[in-house]
Amino acid sequence: MGGYAISQLRPDLIGSGWLGLVIGFGFGWLLIAIDEMLKGFSLRAFSAATFGLFLGTAIAWMVDHSGLFEFSDPQLAERQLVRICVFVGFSYIGMVLAMRGNKEDFSLIIPYVRFASQSRPENILMLDTSVIIDGRIADLMEAGFLEGRIVVPRFVLHELQKLADSNDPVIRARGRRGLEMLTRLQQNKGVEVKIHDSDFPEESEVDAKLVRLSRALGARLFTNDYNLGKVAELQSVRHFNLNQLAAALKPVILPGELLTLRVVREGKDKGQGVGYLNDGTMVVINQAQTLVGQQVGVKVLSLLQTGAGVIIFADLQPAAPALK
User: Fold this and answer.
1) CATH class for the domain made up of 124-248
2) 77 CB neighbour count, 10 Å cutoff
């Protein structure tokens, strides 16, 4: 409609109303096409491209004023063409070098990376999807056991959103829990949470992007994924596994100790009952098959280490009567 209005107000520019409509629609489609091309082009990428363009232009200017073209006629078209090629070529190379690799190297132009005191380096905590959904990171931050700036990459946020929109109710519940945990972290006034826009389009896997971004920012990668932790270790990226922390903090149970727990089901062998400690450790109790559902006192006999964890074998305490 803008093209039609211009054709009516300035017929000397656009003589026909139909032509004005065509020009208006064409301009609109051009804007839509530009918007589609710019999708995924972040502000940091634009800053890096601008810096590269400036650097390439500066190098081209120095080459142009180095006296390389003094012996040619300034009016020759070939000289002007060569100068244009020099400026275009160096500008393009500067933009490509600036945008290729880790954009975090350009600490002067990327808003996120700021100058920090050399005596107190910034502590950056990079969270992956599994840690966010797990939620224990929020408890550790609130209790003051962890300090630092939490960084959540936008591609991790998109992954959580996909999980929350899943048709599978279990996956959908995990995604929503992850989003709730992020909200909880942001509401904690003592915790600074930043959404990082950097991406690595050449990497298809989220884990690979996490490792590269953690290495670029010098961040500690928090994950519950054992394999991701090993990949990070191979690439010299500091990582922290909350499952390993939980295992290290489990209370040490020794033979001869007395425990109190509830028998929840029968065991595999005759006469055995099974109970669980608060941390989920399974306790196999002899002579407790008939005490399912009751709270009993037991004495630890031995411990068996398996791939899934520790299994405790115990005897029912004759002196401690079962309590309902």
Assistant:
1) alpha beta
2) 8
What are the C-alpha distances in Å from 200 to residues 40, 163, 205, 235? 11, 21, 10, 17
Name the segment(s) of the chain with CATH classification 2.40.50.140.
258-316
- Which residues of the chain does CATH 3.40.50.1010 include? 124-248
Question: pTM surpassing 0.70?
Answer: no
Angle, vertex CA 233, rays to CA 146 and CA 207, nearest 5: 80
Per the DSSP assignment, residues forming a β-bridge with 273 are 266, 285
CA distances from 319 to 233, 247, 291 (A): 52, 32, 15
Q: What is the pLDDT of residues 38-79, one digit of tens each?
A: 565 566 666 777 777 788 788 878 877 776 666 555 555 556
Identify whether the C-beta of residue 55 lies closer than 8 Å to the C-beta of residue 94. yes
Chain-centre distance for alpha carbon 207? 8
Tokens of 179: 């989003």
Instruction: Write down the H helix ranges in 10-117.
Output: 17-37, 43-64, 77-99
Q: φ and ψ at 258, to 5 degrees?
A: -105, 130
Comparing 12-26, 154-168, 189-203, which segment has the lowest mean pLDDT?
12-26
242, 138 contact by CB (below 8 A): no
172: nearest Cα among 183, 158, 161, 157: 161
* Fold of the 258-316 domain: OB fold (Dihydrolipoamide Acetyltransferase, E2P) (2.40.50)
Place of tokens 């942001």: 186
Q: Give 164's contacts (C-beta < 8 A, 6+ positions apart).
A: 172, 175, 176, 178, 179
